Amino acid sequence: MERKNTIAIIFDDHSLFADSFSALIERLELFQAVHTFTHEKEFTRFLVKNSPAPICLFLDYYLKDKNALPLINECRRLNRHTTVIVISAVVNPVTVTNIIAYRPDGFISKVSGFSTILECLSVVGRGEQYICPVIQEFLATKNSTNPLPFTARELEILQYFAQGLSIAQTADQTHLSKHTIVAHRRKMMAKANVNSITELLAYARNRELI
Amino acid sequence: MERKNTIAIIFDDHSLFADSFSALIERLELFQAVHTFTHEKEFTRFLVKNSPAPICLFLDYYLKDKNALPLINECRRLNRHTTVIVISAVVNPVTVTNIIAYRPDGFISKVSGFSTILECLSVVGRGEQYICPVIQEFLATKNSTNPLPFTARELEILQYFAQGLSIAQTADQTHLSKHTIVAHRRKMMAKANVNSITELLAYARNRELI
DNA sequence: TATACAATAGCATGTTTTTGTTATTTGCTG
DNA sequence: CAGCAAATAACAAAAACATGCTATTGTATA
């Protein structure tokens, strides 16, 4: 695998993980440079400056209780030569479905070890998608037996409600019409057979959907 | 600081963090050796074998949704020359209080960076307790000013909302007037400085009040 | 290709929640 | 005992939510 012209970027609001993982990646001597970021602003500023250089982004799913996935599109928009590897501590139906929906080049659970990183870099280096064994197994068991009641989009929007956002606030966050949010919301409420957002959240929590 | 005779042990069920943090610690060349563990059994087996050697344990607070603190006593029992540094991704009243109660030699939030580790090792090397600035600040603000945000009655009623009940349904359940429920609800919302029930529930959940 | 369904969006109507304001009773504490 | 906070309760107006209905676009699949 040749990545000497590529810049590795580690994005995690837990600086301790970012710094540590950086040490691990640096030791591999596969990348031209390794940078760590804990805040979105610094990161996008860096992207704009270094737009032509190919980058390999290691992105933690959780950023201060918000999901980091919108950053993937932002990053791909700013730099066409972007490889995205999502790292998640949490493995549950919602998280996994959300992440898969963004089609990252790599998807790794934090319970994976060093060897998984090597394997992942090797596979994505060939231009293929890599999903770590832990997630693979999860998809095989959970997904087949328990068909998810909600779609990926619905689950994504459900996250905002779980964080306490209103319809209007969610519409702002997602750049969608509030009518659309209402539509998704009512669809979920119908599926769950409930008739308020608090009931829906209780329902979702009981099924570990959020 | 002299720790060349000490063995560093990293315990985290997230192997990716353990392996990464290990790379960081190894680079410091402060310890005789660095070992990582993700399971309790292997760890205690190792402890029994290496009982006389002084160890420095970096312990992640969360192990598969359970707290790892009982391991501290186990470790101290098996090896008198144990230095314990607890690392926590979560910083909330319950977690912080629990950890402090175990009197670890060091206590570091995962949002801290590399320099914090250096500072911590320096301080605990002198035999003093180190608590990282993030936790210090948390203790200073949250703990002193906010003893407990909600009354027992409010918390009781909050449970019904968490289960998805509406104002009217909660009034029925508690045999109270719905005006009373509204009053309790608004009191809590005022205390939490939010303005909807979903926000209140998110607030309460973040503080592990429900 | 026809069908189905997800995602998007809109409107109208009735219900629930939120908020401003006020008030009584009860129990604890200085 | 006086004062204060908690628990209880009420009314009205404004804001947000729920629901019945419709419609367009895109994607996937029988």
Automatic annotation (TrEMBL), chains A, B:
SUPFAM superfamilies: C-terminal effector domain of the bipartite response regulators, CheY-like. The keyword Membrane does not apply. The modification 4-aspartylphosphate is found at D60. Residues 7-125 form the Response regulatory domain. Residues 143-208 form the HTH luxR-type domain. SMART domains: HTH_LUXR (SM00421). It comes from the Bacteria. It holds the Pfam family Response_reg. PANTHER family: DNA-BINDING TRANSCRIPTIONAL ACTIVATOR DEVR_DOSR. This is Two component transcriptional regulator, LuxR family. It comes from Parapedobacter luteus.
